[in-house]
Structure prediction request, 728 residues.
Amino acid sequence: MSAEATNPVSAAEDAAADTTVRRRGRARIDLRRLGRAALLGATAGPAPRDRLPDAIGHVAEAHRAHHPEADLTVLRRAYVLAESSHRGQFRKSGEPYITHPLAVTLILAELGAETTTLTASLLHDTVEDTEVTLDQVRREFGDEVAYLVDGVTKVEKIDYGAAAEPETFRKMLVATGNDVRVMSIKLADRLHNMRTLGVMRPEKQARIAKVTRDVLIPLAERLGVQALKTELEDLVFAILHPEEYETTRALIAGNPHAPDALGAVAEQVDAVLREAGIAAEVLVRPRHFVSVHRVRLKRGELRGCDFGRLLVLVAEDADCYGVLGELHTCFTPVISEFKDFIAAPKFNLYQSLHTAVAAPDGAVAEVLIRTHRMHKVAEAGVVALGNPHVGQEPPEQTDGTAPEDGERVDPTRPGWLSRLLDWQQSAPDPDTFWTSLRADLAEDDEITVFRADGSAPGTISLPAGASCVDAAYAQYGEAAHSCLGARVNGRLAPLSTVLGDGDTVQLLLAQDPVSGPSPEWLDHARTPAARIAITEWLRAHPETAETRLPSRSDAQPGTRPDPRPATARRSGAELHADLDGEPPAAVRPAGCCTPVPPDEITGFRVRGGSVTVHRSGCASADAMRRVGRAPVTVRWGDTAQGRVTLVAESFGRPGLLADLTEAIAAAGAAVVSATVEPPSEQRVRHTYTLHLPDAAELPALMRAMRDVPGVYDVSRARHRASPRPRRT
Prediction:
């Protein structure tokens, strides 16, 4: 299907050209006319210095609409260089190649991009596709333009094929993360290519559309560039889902009077606000195609008001709440639809009040309330923020030298991108990074939790569904390995607790450097930073994981087995297993009963050839005997150290967890991991895995824990804290 012939955004704009703010009063530019103008410019020579070439006049008009005082001289020079260097090159559609950088620059100009970005956009293909060098761009247009052109050139070299995607996309993020304007140019470049995708084979259209859907649309959402995101969504929708697209197109075409229903509500809202003395602009915003499709799937049969939303623009933040009060007073509000993204902005800088009101005839109209500046940022995202480095002196290194370009930090960079650039450095390999990135981009919602310690920053941003494990790694980084519990809204909670928007979280860390996460933490970690950090720690400490994770140092096939008895050391507790000359295997204490010297023990072979060691009398060991498992002779080594899991039953009271951990530390034990189950009838169950320097001190440790006020029993664990399938 031709993306040009079925451009859904163009159709939507034509249907309601006077209801939009972003393009009000300006028709879609005819790219073929730009091509003819470019050809005329090529034959007629450079334009006089007192005016811009006709082909770039539309860019100048759009740019001056946002920046009336902008100096257009640099744009003229950039166009002349781009046109002359691309002269003789043509796109697959047959148009002069210069129409592409012109169209990309026009998209950014309409979004309000500043002059430096537009200059780099005009030149973004010159270094890659022509004889122009980066040094030439730097000499003629300065370091800032050269930096952006170089960044876009690196992005253009990326192979989006399935095999190359992980590493190349990782490099792209590193290359562009220091200045989001590079990504803005790339998104505009992809939008124009999607608009003109009809000249390509269907299979190539589908491949490009899938990458756009999976990577670039989520990035546009993260950068807050909704104007690009929505049009990209519609273009991808038309290519990948042609039947659903045609159904939606027919639905919109079959309801030509749908805007009238919202128009009537808009008039009522306008009258209410005028009477209240609130200066506001009330507009009807038609939904784009994908939005209509989603609403139809959600609500079934659509009514007139479902084809769009009302947009109320005011001057000040306080006016937004004034408008909200008037609407909820004079109309019947749909409370479940209210959201305040002004007090709590979204992760992509978006701010607005969302509500819905019922008109007298029963129709429900969704309403967006925001200031004019909020609207500009909502449409253009980071593009609307301008040059983040204007007026800033380049930071100096400690030795007084200027940093390399790759080391500068964009002060407007969204927090999610900063986090992404941080955790990508910890990703052990491109595939892990790619998997984590795709999962992160798939998260549409984000929550904000508050730190109970009052330290700055006072909030932590996490994806919806994140747990206390994620909060711990977001706040403390690798120090979160020693986290042993949390307080959520003032109450003790296990690390597996899923957090909600607005929760207050206090993470409790052990003061023991040998503490570390357990494999179960991976079941509760949602963020890439947490999952990567936990996985790497477990790989570096395989003796702590009851279920062994894949290791890069695993023996290669073909190595000869060592006939000696298997020996293993788990945090100092040495165990020996006599395997009658069979290959050695991991020997580890079982998590169900955590034996320590001098417990009587017995072992059993399990899947993978390893041996688990149980206390005599353990229910799991008895069950293995009943099903015919042959025991393995195991014995303790000379060491007195060991690891044990204890369960403390107590009555809930303030400070209990702190007192218990203090008693454990005073007894010389180290907390490896801990869980606290939710209170039940004022009773709390704590489970601790502890490292003992001398296992003979275990009885004294248990007595010390029982002496803590509120604790009425301490026992050795005989069952897993969280059931898992038995490994056989």
In short: The CA atoms of residues 158 and 164 lie 8 Å apart. The longest helix spans residues 202-222. The chain has a mean pLDDT of 75. The chain has 26 helices and 21 strands.
